[in-house]
Amino acid sequence: MEKDKLQTELKRELNAIKRRNKRVEADKAWETSKTRRALLALTTYALSLIVLVMINAPNPELTAFVPAVAYLLSTPTLPFFKRWWIKHLYRR
Questions:
Q1: From CA 49, how far away is CA 69, in angstroms rounded?
Q2: Cβ neighbours, 10 Å, residue 50
Q3: Which are the contacts of 84, defined by CB distance < 8 A and separation ≥ 6?
Q4: Nearest 10 degrees: CA dihedral of 10, 11, 12, 15?
Q5: How far is CA 41 from the centre of its chain?
Q6: Is 77 in contact with 54 (CB distance < 8 Å)?
Q7: What is the pLDDT of residue 91?
Q8: Comparing 4 with 63, which gets the higher pLDDT?
Q9: pLDDT tens-place string over residues 58-74
């Protein structure tokens, strides 16, 4: 009887780990997706445009591209810096 309880508990824990792994994989896929990058760049552009219009900046439609493009250019470098940070700075 005790063996059955142990097996049941192990199966339950294994299934919980599998569910968690699926969530982690989905989160990782979203974090690295081009869709997410595009949405963030678009949101950055829109918010920058709103602020620039509110402060009466010259050429707000064009100027709002600067932070959006900066974001898009910075995202490819992040994996490099993440690996470096984990190797040199991360303390477990």
A1: 13
A2: 12
A3: none
A4: 120
A5: 13
A6: no
A7: 83
A8: 63
A9: 999 999 999 999 999 88
Task: Check: CB of residue 18 under 8 Å from CB of residue 44.
Answer: no
Give the C-alpha separation, 3 to 32, whole Å. Answer: 43
Look-up of token digits 């142990």? 6
Sorted by where each begins, the domain ranges of the chain are 2-88
Model confidence band, residue 4 (pLDDT cutoffs 50, 70, 90): confident
Cα–Cα distance between 74 and 81 in angstroms, integer? 11
Residues in the chain: 92
**Per-residue three-class SS string for the chain:** CHHHHHHHHHHHHHHHHHHHHHHHHHHHHHHCCHHHHHHHHHHHHHHHHHHHHHCCCCCHHHHCHHHHHHHHHHHHHHHHHHHHHHHHCCCC
Average pLDDT over residues 34-40: 94
Q: What pLDDT, on a 0 to 100 scale, did the predictor assign at position 2?
A: 85
Q: Which residues contact 49 (CB under 8 A, 6 or more apart)?
A: 60, 61, 64
